[in-house]
Amino acid sequence: MAPTAFHPDDHAKPWETTRRGLLLLMSSPAGAGKTSLSRRLVADYGDMILSISATTRAPRPGEEEAREYFFKTRVEFEALIAADDLLEWADVNGNYYGTPKAPVMAALEEGKDVLFDIDWQGARQIAQTAPLDSVRVFVLPPSWSDLSRRLNARAQDGEEVIRQRLALGKSEIAHWSEYDYVIVNKDFDRAYADLIHIYRAERMKPGRNPWLPDFVRGLEAED
Ligand code: 5GP
Asked: Would the CB of 69 count as within 6 Å of ligand 1?
């Protein structure tokens, strides 16, 4: 199935530009494919931006400042907290991670959607702050051995770090039932098609389309 068959821009109508943006919160254990799924969605849909988080963890090989994360010292991060510049923040395995507030607010004002690659604590905080705008998606691996294989194959981390990330993953999946949707990522293309279905359907909710009442009034007024 070609995922582009569901592209909303194919059906774009002028009045859809007034729609209300949504917050797509994606969580998973590391290695389940959440990052690839979310980067692909952002690349394919011009209406969606990826929230770039701030973190105190060190960059991994290949990661770039302002592409994967804004890399901060603990002092810099604590200054962001003190200035109320973060929408949410959490301690994940001894490092701070948080969502800068300003880019999210600016995107929503422009009617754009925002995708968050975020742990369960952050997803919970944002969903509490903006319950009507939040859509939560959890990505599961098809098996634990598959997840372990994927983390080892990346060769980004040493053995001890991989062991820690797997342990952290177990505590992450304990929260799966707090999410609106769950995708089991056995096959990337199928998982991506599922993600697009979720996104497309959520965009069609009446509350996200403030142009609808006027549009329907117009229909009712026609003979
Ligand atoms: P990693 O170090 O593997 O990039 O990320 C570790 C965990 O932190 C992942 O579960 C990731 O989704 C989460 N994370 C990344 N950015 C944020 C954020 O801004 N806030 C919160 N709460 N978690 C985040």
From this structure: no
| Residue located nearest, by CA, to atom 12 of ligand 1 | 118
Quote the ligand 1 centre to 120 CA distance (angstroms). Answer: 9
Assess if residue 74 is contained within a domain. Answer: yes
12-21, 35-44, 141-150, 180-189: least confidently modelled range: 12-21
Q: Is 117 in the pocket of ligand 1 (CB under 6 A)?
A: yes
Show the domain range for 83.
Answer: 18-205
> Is 6 inside any structural domain?
no
- 77 occurs within a structural domain: yes
CATH at 133 = 3.40.50.300
Domain count, the chain: 1
Statement: residue 190 has pLDDT above 90: yes
pTM value?
0.90
pLDDT in tens, 13-62: 544 556 788 999 999 999 999 999 999 999 999 999 999 999 999 999 89
Cα(138) to ligand 1 centroid in Å equals 13
Residues in contact with 62: Cβ distance below 8 Å, sequence separation at least 6, in sequence order: 156
Mean pLDDT of 100-129: 93
DSSP structure string for 95-157: EEEEEEHHHHHHHHHTT-EEEEE--HHHHHHHHHHSTTTEEEEEEE-S-HHHHHHHHHHHT-S
